[in-house]
Write a structure and sequence with these properties.
Radius of gyration of chain A: 17 Å
Number of strands of chain A: 0
Number of helices of chain B: 12
CATH class of the largest domain in chain B: Alpha Beta
Strand content of chain A: under 5%
Oligomer: heterodimer
Structural class of chain A: mainly alpha
Helix content of chain B: 40-55%
Order of helices and strands of chain B: EHEHHEHHEHHEHEHEHEHH
Mean pLDDT of chain A: 85
CATH topology of the largest domain in chain B: Rossmann fold
Number of helices of chain A: 5
Largest interface: A-B, 35 and 40 residues
Strand order of the largest sheet of chain B: 2-1-3-4
Chain lengths: 154, 309
């Protein structure tokens, strides 16, 4: 089974759903794992673009996804709430490849399914942040809603 | 952290949630402590830590509110305060950091403390620890394993830490210090404790993922989707139980598990239990002693089947 590369955040979530549903069957695991990682980039591109930025083509530790996360979190510490999610996506994609290189198709498919779940979380999390506040904050660790000069302690 | 003896008796800051929806966490934390020969002394006249509501209105007020609790611990003669709630733990840690690094926070804290008629808290006097730190450092896995009466053997657990236990990294200077310390990228203290009690921890890639807790009122559907994905991921990992260490995460998981079935028609079966409940039952405490009947997620039949409670 092959999948269409997603064009936007909703498409990324749809891809996650499709891969999660079929990971145990006839999916080519490495190809799908790479697509999931690429879909993670689409999700973060949406975040960066919504903030008026141009998504970077740089890489961090060999992955554009991690560079995009760093770009998206700059000046917005609450975005670090998905830092480990991004790293898990990279990790699981690598485990899929490693499992295949060891001839363990079952492990590859299991980790592909987990990668799909992690991508779904990233899509929901970023989608929620975009939807909820138009780049404001809902996260507990986020910036205050009001600027420093409008607070009652000044 | 210093030696384990310093942790045998610590100040206890339950926070508001543990008096309400998280009461089972309060009950089980105290019961586990007692069972392990540890002592908790509740802060006298403690106040809300500022939670997320006050912080979002004015973070300096939140710093003061948390600093006042630290000040009470110091006045009571403690140099450590244990906060089992991730939100409280985070806020007390953040207050400590801000008072050490932000002159404006210091100024506001001093001003409000003077108005309130008490000395302003000075950073470095009281260390905030989590219930996980407390049990792991005061007792340790080896001793825990010796005290287990009802092993959790055969129970597959996904350990869920939530997003505030490790973030932001700079307010947790004791973490990421190599072997023996907690990791902000892949926390493991709950895994270690429950493994000592016999549990089989599963690989779980969303252990620090956001549960959408702060979204619960403004966008319940988003929270439900985030939680459902966390629960389905745990099940895909083979977990029978999600162990929690935060009342907000725990309640969110329980509520949205029910809501996912009602609204989205997606039924899941994984049980949601505080790590202190699992540990308590492993130590020989009954299910009611650790407040299992107070959970929304009904796990009594499951626990009975596993020979616990």
């Amino acid at each position: 089974m092959t999948f269409q590369a997603p064009l936007d955040l909703d498409g990324a979530i749809a891809l996650a759903d499709a891969v999660a549903a079929s990971a145990a069957s006839d999916t080519a695991p490495l190809e799908a794992a790479k697509q999931l990682l690429g879909a993670g980039e689409v999700v973060l591109e949406a975040w960066v673009e919504a903030a008026g930025g141009v998504p970077t083509d740089d890489e961090v530790e060999g992955y554009r996804l991690l560079a995009l996360h760093r770009q998206g979190a700059k000046g917005n510490p609450s975005f670090n709430a998905c830092r480990e999610t991004c790293r898990e996506l990279v990790y699981l994609r690598n485990v899929v490849e490693m499992s295949l290189s060891e001839g363990d198709l079952a492990q590859a498919r299991h980790h592909l399914m987990l990668e799909a779940h992690v991508l779904r979380h990233l899509g929901l999390f970023v989608g929620g942040k975009l939807h909820e506040s138009g780049l404001g904050d809902f996260c507990c660790s986020s910036r205050p809603l009001h600027s420093a000069d409008s607070t009652i302690t000044n | 952290m210093d030696g384990s003896n310093d942790l045998k008796k610590v100040a206890y800051y339950p926070g508001c949630a543990l008096e309400g929806t998280g009461h089972a966490y309060n009950r089980s934390t105290k019961a586990v402590g007692k069972s392990l020969g540890l002592e908790l002394v509740e802060l006298e006249n403690w106040n809300c830590c500022g939670a997320m509501e006050v912080k979002n209105v004015d973070p300096k007020i939140q710093t003061y509110l948390s600093a006042r609790n630290l000040s009470i611990a110091e006045d009571m003669g403690f140099d450590k305060v244990m906060a089992p709630c991730n939100g409280c733990y985070h806020n007390l840690k953040k207050a400590e950091y801000d008072l050490a690094n932000d002159p404006k926070s210091v100024e506001v804290n001093e001003r409000i403390s003077a108005k309130a008629g008490h000395d302003a808290y000075k950073p470095g006097k009281v260390e905030t620890i989590h219930a996980l730190d407390w049990i792991k450092k005061a007792v340790g896995e080896e001793e825990l394993a010796k005290r287990v009466q009802n092993s959790l053997k055969g129970i597959k657990v996904a350990n869920y830490y939530g997003c505030m236990y490790t973030r932001p990294r700079h307010i947790f200077p004791e973490k990421d210090k190599g072997p023996g310390s907690e990791s902000t990228a892949k926390p493991h203290f709950m895994d270690d404790i429950l493994a000592a009690a016999g549990a089989e921890n599963v690989e779980f890639p969303l252990k620090t993922a956001c549960c959408g807790g702060a979204h619960s009122l403004s966008d319940s559907d988003m929270s439900t989707k985030l939680v459902l994905n966390i629960i389905e991921t745990a099940e895909a990992c083979g977990a029978e139980v999600i162990a929690t260490e935060c009342p907000t995460c725990h309640t969110g998981l329980e509520m949205h598990q029910v809501r996912a079935e009602k609204v989205l028609g997606r039924k899941t079966n994984v049980k949601i239990l505080y790590f202190t409940q699992l540990l308590g039952m492993a130590l020989g405490l009954s299910a009611s002693k650790v407040g299992v009947q107070e959970n929304l997620s009904d796990s009594r039949a499951f626990l009975k089947e596993k020979g616990l409670g």
